[in-house]
C-alpha cells in the first residue's frame, strides 16, 4: 500500500511539473508551484526528485524516449523505405499533435540552457544507437537501388522536424491569418499531416 501511495505521489508530481514546464518554461516554474499543482508539499517534490533540474531531466528524457521509441516501433526494414518514412513522419506528427507545447520547451532550453539538453540527449544515446544505424543503412540501400534520390540522413531529419513542428509553433499566427477557430485548425492539422508526407516523399524522388 505504501509503495502504491509513493508511486501515486511520484506520478502526480511528474504530471504537475510537465504541465507547468510546458505552460511556463523551466525557469519560470518553481517547486512550490509544482507541489501546489500536485497536491503535496514542497518537501515531497525534493524527496522524490531532489532538485527541479532532475525533475525536468526526467520529464524531458521521457518525452525524448517517447518520440524515438514510437518511430522505432513503426520502422520495419523488410518493407519499402518510403512506407517506413511515411510511418515515421506520421508518428512524429501525431506526437506533436498530442504534445503541441514540446517544441516551445525545447527551443526555450536551447536558448537558455543548451548544456542541459546536451546532457539529456547523451542519456538516451543507447536508444539512438539502436535505431540510427538501421535508419542510415536502410536509407543507403534505398539510394543504391534507385528507390530514392541521394540524400543525407540529417537532411531528411531537418526537413521532417521543420515541416512537422511549424504548424504547432505557428498556431496563433495561422489561426489569425486564416481566421480559423480551434475546430477549423484541427481540420487543417489533419490535412497538414498528409501534405507533409507528400512533400517529404516527393522531395526524395529521383528526377
Q: Tell me, what is the CATH class of the largest domain?
A: Mainly Alpha
Shape: globular
Q: Tell me the CATH superfamily of the largest domain.
A: Tetracycline Repressor, domain 2
What would CATH call the architecture of the largest domain? Orthogonal Bundle
> How many discrete structural domains?
2
Strand content: under 5%
How does the major sheet shape up?
none
- Work out the radius of gyration: 20 Å
Tally the helices.
11
CATH topology value of the largest domain: Tetracycline Repressor, domain 2
Order of helices and strands: HHHHHHHHHHH
| Average pLDDT | 87
Portion in helices = over 70%
Q: Which structural class should the secondary elements be placed in? A: mainly alpha
The end-to-end distance, rounded to whole angstroms, is: 64 Å
Uncertain spans: 1-5
Number of E-state strands: 0
Can you give me a brief rundown of this structure?
The protein is mainly α and 207 residues long.
Describe the structure.
This protein is globular. Mean pLDDT is 87; it is low at 1-5. It has 2 domains: 1-50, Orthogonal Bundle (Arc Repressor Mutant, subunit A), CATH 1.10.10; 53-203, Tetracycline Repressor, domain 2 (Orthogonal Bundle), CATH 1.10.357. The chain has helices spanning 2-24, 31-38, 42-49, 52-73, 81-98, 102-112, 114-123, 125-144, 153-169, 171-178, 182-203. It is built from 11 helices and no strands. With 207 residues, the chain is mainly α.
Give the key terms.
207 residues; mainly alpha; Arc Repressor Mutant, subunit A; Tetracycline Repressor, domain 2; 2 domains; 11 helices; 0% strand; disordered N terminus
Amino acid at each position: 500500500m505504501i509503495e502504491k501511495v509513493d508511486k501515486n505521489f511520484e506520478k502526480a508530481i511528474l504530471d504537475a511539473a510537465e504541465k507547468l514546464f510546458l505552460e511556463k518554461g523551466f525557469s519560470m516554474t518553481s517547486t512550490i508551484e509544482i507541489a501546489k499543482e500536485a497536491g503535496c508539499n514542497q518537501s515531497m517534490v525534493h524527496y522524490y526528485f531532489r532538485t527541479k533540474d532532475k525533475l525536468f531531466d526526467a520529464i524531458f528524457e521521457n518525452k525524448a524516449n517517447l518520440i524515438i521509441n514510437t518511430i522505432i516501433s513503426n520502422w520495419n526494414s523488410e518493407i519499402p523505405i518510403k512506407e517506413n518514412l511515411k510511418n515515421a513522419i506520421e508518428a512524429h506528427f501525431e506526437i506533436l499533435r498530442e504534445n503541441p507545447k514540446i517544441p516551445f520547451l525545447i527551443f526555450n532550453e536551447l536558448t537558455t540552457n543548451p548544456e542541459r539538453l546536451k546532457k539529456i540527449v547523451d542519456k538516451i544515446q543507447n536508444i539512438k544507437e539502436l535505431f540510427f544505424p538501421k535508419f542510415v543503412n536502410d536509407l543507403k540501400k534505398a539510394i543504391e537501388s534507385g528507390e530514392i534520390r541521394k540524400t543525407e540522413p540529417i537532411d531528411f531529419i531537418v526537413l521532417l522536424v521543420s515541416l512537422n513542428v511549424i504548424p504547432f509553433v505557428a498556431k496563433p499566427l495561422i489561426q489569425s491569418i486564416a481566421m480559423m477557430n480551434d475546430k477549423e485548425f484541427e481540420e487543417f492539422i489533419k490535412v497538414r499531416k498528409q501534405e507533409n508526407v507528400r512533400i517529404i516523399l516527393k522531395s526524395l524522388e529521383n528526377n
